[in-house]
Design goal:
alpha+beta
Length: 147
């Protein structure tokens, strides 16, 4: 059952329209863990020639979010709070966001994430709280194919 849930979440991620703008790939290797691969390109730079903060947020929030939602098999979770810690500017390069569920499963969940460059060095980290919503995963396009 957990494998079906994890693959459904991967399909849900791929089906999200925002991921047509931020092309990335989600892999859920186990419940409570996520990996997102993404490539920063120059069209994502701010005026000083490095990745805009939206890139950091998107990758870190998604990684923590899906690590948390991997622990909840019936409902879509919502981000209620998220903190970013930016370590260094990112240029055009491939990144890996790793998410890890920390605690909670009934109503509020806590998860954290790390953003790594191609050499495995951390460029940012994040931590968030996520809450179960009333949105059933089985009703969402992409996920429903897992049923």
């Amino acid at each position: 059952m957990i494998e079906r849930h994890l693959r459904g979440l991967e399909r849900l991620y791929a089906a999200a329209p925002v991921n047509q703008l931020f092309r990335s790939q989600l892999i859920l290797p186990a419940a409570g863990r996520s990996e997102i691969r993404f490539e920063v390109t120059p069209d994502m730079f701010h005026a000083a020639g490095a990745a805009h903060g939206t890139i950091y947020f998107k990758m870190l929030d998604d990684a923590a979010f899906y690590a948390a939602n991997a622990m909840v098999e019936d409902s879509f979770v919502l981000t209620t709070q998220f903190n970013l810690f930016l370590t260094r500017p990112v240029k055009a390069e491939k990144l890996l966001a790793i998410g890890q569920w920390v605690s909670g499963a009934r109503r509020v969940l806590i998860a954290e994430s790390r953003l790594l460059d191609e050499d495995g060095a951390e460029v940012a980290r994040g931590q968030g709280t996520f809450m179960r919503s009333r949105i059933r995963l089985a009703d969402l396009p992409g996920y429903a194919a897992a049923a």
